[in-house]
Every structure is written in C-alpha cells, then in structure tokens.
Write a structure and sequence with these properties.
Elements (H helix, E strand, L loop, with lengths): L1 H14 L6 H32 L12 H25 L2 H22 L5 H10 L1 H15 L6 H36 L3 H9 L2 H26 L5 H28 L3 H22 L2 H18 L3 H17 L1 H6 L8 H12 L5 H6 L9 H7 L6 H5 L3
Length: 393
C-alpha cells in the first residue's frame, strides 16, 4: 500500500506536465476562452432582441442601470475569463478530443432526429450548452494546426490578439444593446441598433453555421490526435470499440433527459453524467493523465453553465411557448414531450384562461381555429424579463 502511494506521488509531476510549451498552452487557452465569450455575448444579444420583440411595447423604456451592469458584470466576466483560460490551458489534447467527439455526435443526432420541423429555440438550446465544448474544439484545432510549426508561439500570439479584441467588441456590443437598444431601435438614431433591428434575425443562423464549421474542423483534429499514438489497427480497435459504446449510451441518455425536462438543473445533471462517462472511459482505456484532465473538465463546464443560468431559463421558456403554439412540430420533435412538467403547467394555465390546449387544437377546424401565433404570443408573455437577462452582465 505504501509503495502504491509513493508511485502515485512520484507520478504527480508527470500529471502536471504540459504537452507543449506552457506559453503556447496559455495562448491556446486565451483564444479558446475568447471564442466562448464571443458566443455567449452574441447569444445574449439574440435573446434580448427576441425578448423585446415578444413584448407589446409598454415596457420598452424600462432598462437596467448601465453603471450597475458594468460594475458587477465586468468583475464576474473577468473572473470567469481567467478561470476558463487556466482550465483550457491545462486540459490535454486527448481529453479535449474526447469532449469534441462526444458533443459532435450529440449535435448530429439532435439535428438529425429533429429534422426540418425542429423548433427555432432548439438551436438556441444547443448553442447555450456548447460553450465548454466549443472551447475544447478551438483548443484541439489549434494544437492540430500548429503541430510542428517552427514559429508556433508567434502564430498563437498573433491569433490571441484578434481573439481578445473580438471578444471585447462583442462585450461592448452586448452592453450597448442591453442599455440603449430599446431607445435607439424606436428612434432609428443608431446604426448598430438599426442594423440589428433589420437583420438581427440572421444572427442566430450565423452562430449555428459558425458552430458547425468549428466542430467540423475540430472533429478532424480530434480523430487525428486520438489515432496518433496507435501503431497497429488492433490497438486502435481496442480503443474505439468502448468509445463508440460509451458515446452511444451518452447520446441516448442526453436525448431522453432533454425530452423529459430542459431546465438548468437538467443541463447540469447531463453535464455531470457526460463527464462521468468520459471519466469511466479513460479509466478503462486511457492514461492517468487523461483521468486528471477529465477531472479538470468538471470546473470548466461549471464555469460555463453557472453564469448562463438565465440563458438556459429563457431558452426553456421559449421552447415551451413554441411547443404550445406549434403542437404538430412538438409531436415530431425530440426536444420536448408531453411528460415535460413545464409544458403541463403551461397547458393547465391556458386551460384556466380559456385558451385551448393540444387536444382542443387537434379537434378545431375552420372558423374555430386558433388565431395566428402572434396573437397567442401576446396572450402568453415571457416570464423572464430583460432585467433578469441583463443581471449577469
């Protein structure tokens, strides 16, 4: 027993050893964290504009105070940025590749099962849950693209500068939209707000296409990274067989969990299950350094999910609203089912208010049909206000 503990203590320096130069790892963490913040800020812009467009116009002049927003939001964002940078710099390329492959398989399965009748908020839910996986994808892609480069540190430094600048500009855009968009969009006195008013609906599609492109490159890098140490096909087969079985079980579980409930608690629970599955996988076919890197993924995932709880709540409410307005699409979609407690609560609320539910919709025809979706949206207002959406930043 003592010899076993001594072997563990002697192996600790190997666990903490960087795969490359520590400066390169830090620069990769900066670029990856900047990508996460760009996604988060643009998501907040999209959801804020949608929240304002769903209102009747009486609360457009209500705004949070910009001084409180900048003070509290800047400190929390800076702390989150530092934690994610250190975390992504420490996570190895093999574990980052495993996270990328798991999320890519879940992404393809979600979009394949949803099909063309998927609800618009389904893509928003995927974007909110992809923050840490996107950081691992960027980190894995950077390691693969700069592998063996003679000026690797200089290239990463040149990439970190524009990444930080882009993240800062997206943060300024979000603060501008959160404080001045209700006023400028009504008076048409700001070019940025007018552009978002006219073409802001394309921002969500741009984020989805960017996510597909990022993970498309990252999947190639992940497969190459995982196959690199294998010298024969039998060794690769012993690794990929349990990996495929583990990922298939994880995808089935995550889809069932999202179909049953889509709250923030469910998102954190599925994240723990996914990383726990990866931990069991690396304990079976991985290395001891991979075990440590998977354990580092738990605080990294928490740094992304905990500050975005308001986004998760708002997306869940948008899914419930779209499910009540589009029952046929909800029946074919894997995002929600009739067992969802939020959807049952909303149906009971509509029934008490005299609004027919899914059964009543299926029996109505002709002049008894429901009014257009815009009228239904005006009757069911969103419970998450823009003050709650802005409370984080």
């Amino acid at each position: 027993m003592i010899s076993y503990i001594q072997a563990w203590l002697l192996a600790i320096p190997d666990f903490l050893e960087f795969e490359t130069n520590p400066l390169d790892c830090l620069l990769q963490g900066l670029v990856s964290t900047s990508g996460i913040f760009v996604l988060c800020y643009l998501l907040r812009v999209v959801l804020f504009i949608q929240a304002l467009s769903n209102e009747d116009g009486s609360n457009l002049k209500e705004c949070t105070r910009p001084a409180e927003l900048s003070a509290n939001g800047w400190l929390s964002a800076a702390f989150q940025f530092c934690c994610l940078t250190v975390n992504l710099a420490l996570v190895g390329s093999r574990v980052a590749s495993l996270v990328v492959l798991e999320f890519s398989l879940r992404l393809v399965s979600s979009w394949a099962t949803a099909g063309p009748t998927s609800l618009p908020s389904t893509s928003l839910q995927i974007l909110v849950h992809s923050q840490f996986s996107l950081g691992c994808a960027l980190s894995c892609s950077l390691r693969f693209l700069h592998d063996g480069a003679p000026k690797r540190s200089l290239n990463l430094l040149l990439a970190a500068g524009p990444s930080l600048l882009l993240a800062g500009q997206c943060g300024r855009l979000w603060r501008h939209v959160a404080t001045l968009y209700p006023l400028h969009s009504s008076q048409c006195s700001c070019g940025i707000c007018v552009s978002l008013l006219t073409s802001g609906h394309t921002l969500q599609a741009f984020l989805c296409h960017s996510l597909k492109l990022s993970f498309g490159v990252a999947v190639i890098a992940a497969i190459s990274t995982l196959n690199h140490p294998f010298k024969s096909a039998s060794e690769a087969l012993r690794f990929w067989t349990p990996l495929t079985v583990c990922y298939a079980l994880l995808v089935v579980y995550v889809q069932e969990e999202q179909r049953r409930c889509s709250s923030g608690t469910a998102a954190r629970r599925t994240a723990v299950v996914r990383l726990g599955g990866l931990l069991l996988l690396v304990l079976t076919v991985g290395r001891w350094t991979d075990v440590l890197h998977v354990l580092l993924c738990f605080p990294g995932e928490a740094c992304c999910l905990i500050p975005s709880q308001d986004l998760q709540a708002l997306v869940a409410q948008e899914l419930i609203k779209e499910a009540s307005c589009n029952p046929k699409q909800t029946a074919n979609s894997d995002t929600y089912s009739e067992e969802s407690p939020e959807l049952v609560h909303l149906h009971r609320k509509h029934k008490s208010a005299g609004i027919p539910g899914r059964e009543g919709i299926s029996q109505m025809s002709g002049s008894d049909a429901l009014p257009p979706s815009r009228d239904l949206k005006s009757q069911t207002s969103c419970t998450v206000t823009k003050q709650e959406l802005c409370s984080r930043y």
